[in-house]
Automatic annotation (TrEMBL):
Protein name, as recorded: Protein kinase domain-containing protein
Signal peptide: 1-20
Originating species: Oryza brachyantha
Transmembrane segments: 356-378
Name of the gene encoding the protein in the UniProt record: LOC102722250
A Gene Ontology molecular function term of the record: polysaccharide binding
UniProt membrane topology term: Single-pass type I membrane protein
InterPro entries per UniProt: EGF, EGF-like_Ca-bd_dom, EGF_Ca-bd_CS, Kinase-like_dom_sf, Prot_kinase_dom, Protein_kinase_ATP_BS, Ser-Thr/Tyr_kinase_cat_dom, Ser/Thr_kinase_AS
Length: 740
């Protein structure tokens, strides 16, 4: 019995394989595919392998392209899909554009015009009006389609549909919106024979900075979504376009005229002719009950409906028997049906044995269903318990954050398939939201009743901080044992990796970029200290907690040690943070203040201008060595990063170095606050830009950070010898080198 079932299974596989092969049948001895594109007749590659007008070429990697790649013969137009069932093909066509500038008011793209001419030299193709749309991108730009001249028309081209997009200003166009502002789209009529477009532009000269070009292109309806960045689209951009094809030779005859004429294309037995609905001509298909290639002799073969995986297409509520071009359906033995078993189920005749068998089967089924329901209830109870333990009752009321379910998080991270890094509490994963926004998903602390308030407090703090230079918390998942936090994605990792990482992360950093990073990081901390509804201290400022996005804009992150500035929470029994960055006053007393963050930021400033970690060259202390340099030479020149220690940069570097030492003064009251630090850095940048711009007037004077030659007492709390013995750069709980 088992052998018989195995043979039947093998037979079904053979039949299905033969059926699949017949669908893409080509002429004997001809190439059946090119790369991932199947080549069914009437298409073909090489002499005698295709019908006239359906010739293709297969370009290999040796042809200067990433091959193999199917193209329309004699052209460079790539073919990505061919279908004889729907008489459709998909090709890649260039975008039409027209650009403007001061020296040459108009500069147009000729590639799309050439491609339009090449595409339909034999008149086989029409642009699919059901699958494509015309899109115009630009400001004050009118684009419309052109096609071959209509018979008897007075123009060289036939002009069809179009639309006009406009812009009020550089911010008026919105991502995902293509309704006339920066982008418009319109349906196209049937009958288009090529992809040519034309332009009319109005008052375009005033918008050269953010929209120097107008673009127009045909594209599949589901293959394009407008982004404001497309106003500066790559001129070599291409788009997928669907084509309708048909047999259009012999005067583009209809089915009624073609059947008795030489060259009739529907040659297979059990084939039918269908008049084209997009232009003149006809197509061929296999008759009902058959499948395959109607353009090949013997190409239409019987469908085995009984082996078809989709039972809804060929339903049978009994025993299925395949016939030529159809199938029969009969009730099983012991069952009966007053109607057709294809339409309704057969009912048992119910002998005693059948009733016993049915009772046993139903009993087992009910038991399995009950067990499944029980397991689902247990799982639901476990999820609810995690949700409660992780503070869900409080956090679900917090604004600005989304509570993700466990299943949603699996989908976002593709089941944790891509790891970005290793954090202090676990791994950080890359994720993608439904709107294609990239995010970073990281583990938080393991929450129990004692830690619940700390965790919810951290999430609430972060949800209230909305600032360009603070990493944005988008949401969290509480239905897991250890809660997961979903943050905005920082493509360039953290400042620790950029400054001190291996060669894969270490990149050239000009002084202007370092100054921008310092200023914007200071702005983020200033916002935390004074610009939010509830003043916040970070408590662990260090390069590893300064993330950088794809434009190197810094984002302050990791608020696990943040505390609300309230009277009863100035002190903590647990001093946490990273050695080398902890405020000595906080380390000795447990008192965390805003000036504690100022001290840590001073260390970050030193690392930015020296590109040295707090412990470098084995056992050297950056803080102590930098202070010694000023005590001995009244300058930090010997410590500055050689990459930026040029003559023209020395003034700025000295000022930053002295500002860093001001931040790290031992006496808390002598340190500046973050607002003052940010203002001093902004003044330095303004002075530098004024000097770089060759202004004749002197730069605006600014307050001296320190008197030359005045000794500084850094608040290290350690002597040179004792500090030099420190070997660990940070405490294990906060040593994160991941994206977050």
């Amino acid at each position: 019995m088992i052998k018989m079932e195995l043979l039947l299974f093998v037979f079904v596989l053979v039949v299905m394989a033969a059926t699949a092969e017949s669908k893409t049948a080509g002429k004997p001895g001809c190439q059946l595919n090119c790369g991932s594109v199947d080549i069914p007749y009437p298409f073909g590659i090489g002499p005698g392998c295709s019908r006239s007008g359906f010739e293709l070429s297969c370009l290999t990697s040796g042809s200067g392209v990433a091959g193999p790649k199917a193209v329309l013969a004699g052209t460079s137009i790539q073919v990505t899909k061919l279908s004889i069932e729907t008489a459709e093909s998909q090709v890649i066509l260039p975008v039409g554009w027209q650009c403007f500038n001061a020296s040459q008011p108009k500069d147009s793209n000729g590639n799309w015009s050439a491609a339009a001419t090449e595409m339909n030299r034999h008149g086989v193709y029409r642009i699919s009006n059901t699958n494509n749309m015309l899109v115009v991108v630009g400001c004050n730009t009118l684009g419309y389609t052109e096609s071959l001249r209509t018979e008897g028309g007075s123009y060289g081209r036939t002009y069809y549909t179009g639309c006009m997009s406009y812009c009020n200003n550089s911010d008026s166009a919105q991502d995902g919106q293509c309704a006339g502002v920066g982008c418009c789209h319109v349906d196209i009529p049937p009958g288009l024979t090529d992809s040519s477009v034309n332009f009319r532009d109005y008052d375009h000269s005033a918008m050269l900075d953010y929209s120097p070009c107008g673009y127009a292109f045909l594209v599949g309806r589901s293959n394009y979504t407008f982004r404001r960045a497309d106003l500066m689209m790559d001129r070599n951009q291409t788009m997928p376009v669907y084509l309708d094809w048909a047999i259009r030779d012999n005067g583009s005859m209809s089915c009624a005229d073609a059947k008795d004429k030489p060259g009739y294309a529907c040659v297979s037995v059990h084939s039918e002719c269908v008049d084209s609905i997009n232009g003149p001509g006809y197509t061929c298909k296999c008759s009902t009950g058959y499948e395959g290639n109607a353009y090949v002799d013997g190409g239409c073969t019987n469908i085995n409906e009984c082996a078809w995986p989709n039972t809804q297409k060929y339903p049978c509520y009994g025993i299925c028997l395949d016939t030529d071009g159809s199938y029969e359906c009969r009730c099983h033995r012991g069952y009966q049906n007053s109607g057709d078993p294809k339409e309704q189920a057969c009912s048992p005749k119910f002998p005693l044995a059948a009733q016993l068998a049915l009772g046993i089967t139903l009993g087992i089924s009910f038991l399995m269903v009950g067990l499944l329901v029980t397991l689902m209830m247990i799982q639901k109870r476990r999820l609810n318990e995690h949700f409660r333990k992780n503070g869900g009752s409080v956090l679900q009321k917090v604004e600005n954050i989304k509570i993700f379910t466990k299943e949603e998080l699996k989908k976002i991270t593709k089941n944790n398939s891509e790891v970005l890094g290793q954090g202090g509490f676990g791994k950080v994963y890359k994720g993608i939201l439904e709107d294609n926004t990239m995010v970073a998903v990281k583990s938080s602390i393991e929450v129990n009743d004692a830690r619940k308030e700390d965790f919810t407090n951290e999430v609430i703090i972060q949800s209230q901080m909305i600032h360009t230079n603070i990493i944005k918390l988008l949401g969290c998942c509480l239905e897991v044992d250890v809660p997961m936090l979903v943050y905005e994605f920082a493509a360039n990792g953290n400042l620790q990796e950029i400054l001190h990482g291996d060669n894969s992360h270490r990149i050239p950093l000009p002084l202007d970029l370092r100054l921008d990073i310092a200023i914007e990081s200071a702005e983020g901390l200033k916002y935390m200290h004074s610009s939010t509804n509830r003043t916040i201290r970070h408590g662990d400022v260090k390069p590893a907690n300064i993330l950088l996005n794809d434009k190197f804009i810094p984002k302050i992150s990791d608020f696990g040690t943040s505390k609300l500035l309230t009277v009863d929470k100035d002190f903590t029994m647990f001093v946490v943070g990273s050695m080398g960055y902890i405020d000595p006053v906080f380390h000795k007393t447990g008192r965390l203040t805003q000036k504690s963050d100022v001290y840590s930021f001073g260390v970050v400033l030193l690392e930015l201008i020296t590109r040295k970690p707090t412990i470098y060259d084995g056992n050297c202390s950056l803080l102590i060595d930098f202070q010694k340099a000023y005590e001995q030479e009244n300058s930090g020149k010997a410590m500055f990063d050689k990459e930026i220690a040029t003559k023209e940069n020395m003034f700025i570097l000295e000022k930053i170095g002295r500002l860093a030492m001001e931040c790290m003064k031992e006496k808390v009251e002598e340190r500046p606050d973050m607002k003052e630090v940010a203002e001093q850095l902004v003044i330095l940048r303004r002075s530098r830009k004024a000097k770089q711009g060759n202004h004749r007037m002197n730069p605006q004077p600014f307050e001296e950070i320190s008197n030359e030659g005045t000794p500084f007492s850094l608040g290290t709390g350690l002597s040179a010898s004792s500090y030099g013995s420190v070997s660990a750069p940070s405490t294990p709980a906060n040593n994160e080198s991941s994206n977050l």
